Amino acid sequence: MAAHSKNRVKNAGEVLRRLESATPDEMLEAIGVIDEWRAGHAKPLRRVNAGLRHYVRKVGVEQPEVTQRLKRFATIADKLRRQPTMALSRMEDIGGARVTRRLGEGLKFGAGPDDLREYYVLVSELLAMRERHEQPDSVFMEQLASRFAATRRHFPNEEPR
Questions:
Q1: What SS3 state is found at 38?
Q2: Residue 1 above 80 pLDDT?
Q3: Which residue(s) pair with 99 in the sheet?
Q4: Which residue, 116, 103, 99, is CA-closest to 59?
Q5: Contact 76, 38 (CB under 8 A)
Q6: How far is CA 31 from each of CA 9, 38, 102, 103, rounded to the nearest angstrom?
Q7: For 37-85, how does the pLDDT look when each residue is reduced to its tens digit (9 = 90+)?
Q8: Long-range CB contacts (< 8 A, 24+ apart) of 37-41?
Q9: Contact predicate 161/123, CB 8 Å
């Protein structure tokens, strides 16, 4: 796979964004660049997945499901059209990995214990703060620590911290 410059990836995204006015040759080249750029995320994503599997086993989580995904081409195109100022070379969610575990029978997607959901909301807020280079205040950190402690009952095989 040939690595493409950020500028070339950005330009390919612009061609995809203006699909209606692009020539067939421009589209074919853009599709090739975007496909290779997207595929270039597969190997690092596999490493993240392997790392997650290692740490999940290390802490003794029973029956974890570690999954990964690359953003589909159509989803990339849709996101570029919805966010007209976004450069493809700066799109951050091309791939992702996650660990899930069964908490109990009868739970539906998005359902679960309130304390666990509240903890994950706080973790998401913390990650967003870090992306914006913001420091959480002490009240936020106390809430996070309290939610963390409350959720430990859902992970009985973990060693206490």
A1: helix
A2: no
A3: 66
A4: 99
A5: yes
A6: 10, 10, 39, 42
A7: 999 999 999 998 888 888 888 777 777 788 899 999 889 988 998 998 9
A8: 37/4, 37/9, 37/12, 37/88, 38/70, 38/71, 38/73, 38/76, 38/94, 39/1, 39/70, 40/1, 40/3, 41/70, 41/94, 41/95
A9: no
Placement of tokens 């807020």 in the chain = 125
Name the amino acid, one letter, at 48: V
- Cα–Cα distance, 3 to 47 (Å, whole number): 19
Three-class secondary structure of residue 85 per DSSP: coil
Kindly list the domain boundaries of the chain, sorted by start residue: 1-102, 103-161
- Cβ atoms of 59 and 157 closer than 8 Å: yes
Question: Residue 57: which of 156, 161, 151, 158 has the closest Cα?
Answer: 158
pLDDT at 107: 47
Residue 106 pLDDT: 47
